[in-house]
Amino acid sequence: YAGEVVTIRALCMAGKLGAALWLRKKMIQRGLIPDVLSHNYIVNALCKSGELEKADWLLRDMMEMGISPNSATYNSFIKGYCLVNDVDKALFIFSTMVNSGIRPNIFTLNILVHALCKRGLLEDAKKLFHEILDDNDNGTPDLVTSTILMDGCIKSGNMGEALSVWNGMFRNNDLVAYNVLIHGFCLSRDTKLAFVYLCEMLKRGFLPDIFTFNTLVSGLCKEGKFDEASYLHGIMSSSGVAPD
RNA sequence: GCACCCUGUUUUGCU
Asked: Which amino acid residue lies closest to nucleotide B4, measuring CA to C1'?
């Protein structure tokens, strides 16, 4: 049983969903009922690739076998519907989740904040963010929530707002948060400040990755600073990060 | 009890 579950997980990560579904069917035929977790691997993969009808069928089939979806299952659907721009359906799933007594968790909220930001509904996103802040029952906004919001501000051209989100994080940052901030400075054509924060992250022990380098190289090129860009490109190769 | 499944960042082409 454990072997099959591991295989289902591997197949899903490789994008071989047909095979994963086939293996699941074989297990059921042999009387081995995969648990929620195994189903979540497949449901999540289907939702990520936009195959929501199939995911929905799988959910119903799973429930007919007496297995209840958990928050991860619902989160996959909410994100999936947001991805195909069906926010109404996402909100419907959200209320289904709440009505079946499953509390939205920080993942759920992050998915929703992200969806709002992506649609440019920054004010709604900020509102939701502050509602989470005020309502301890819904979990606490975390580093990821702040990063999503910061990225949303940057993408709608509001670097000042992004900086106040950054300051609200009180140095509770990670590599992704630094990458987002550096991207923001590059977009506002301020590579000087981008480098200030690159240095800061290095001092704090965060190692730049391919995202950091691509952001900076592209930012430098857009400002016409090709020498610095190729200098950075060299550092990138020699520090084990493969340029692409 | 813990763990496993679900959330965030770059690379501008095409309509």
From this structure: A37
Q: What is the pLDDT of residue A42?
A: 95
Tell me which residues of chain A have a pLDDT lower than 50: none
A window 153-172: Cβ near strand B (< 7 A): 155
- ipTM reported for the complex, 2 dp: 0.76
Asked if residue A191 keeps its beta carbon closer than 7 A to nucleic acid strand B, the reply is no
Query: Measured between alpha carbons, how far is A206 from A209 in angstroms, rounded to an integer?
Result: 9
Q: Å between A164 CA and B4 C1'?
A: 36
- Please tell me the distance from the alpha carbon of residue A117 to that of residue A115, in angstroms, as a whole number: 5
Q: Is the CB of A129 under 7 A from strand B?
A: no
Nearest to A15 by CA among A46, A39, A56, A36: A46
Burial of A118: CB neighbours in 10 Å, binned 0-12, 13-18, 19+:
middle
A194 vs A213: CA distance, rounded Å: 11
pLDDT the model gives residue A55: 95
Residues, chain A, total?
A: 244
Is A214 buried (19+), middle (13-18) or exposed (0-12) by CB count in 10 A? middle
Cα–Cα distance measured from residue A95 to residue A84, given in angstroms and rounded to the nearest whole number: 19
Q: Which residues of A158-190 are buried (b: 16+ CB within 10 A; e: fewer)?
A: bbebbbebbeebeeebeebbbbbbbbbbbbbee
Å from A79 (CA) to B15 (C1')?
Answer: 26
The reported pTM is 0.89
Whether the beta carbon of A83 falls within 7 A of nucleic chain B: the reply is: no
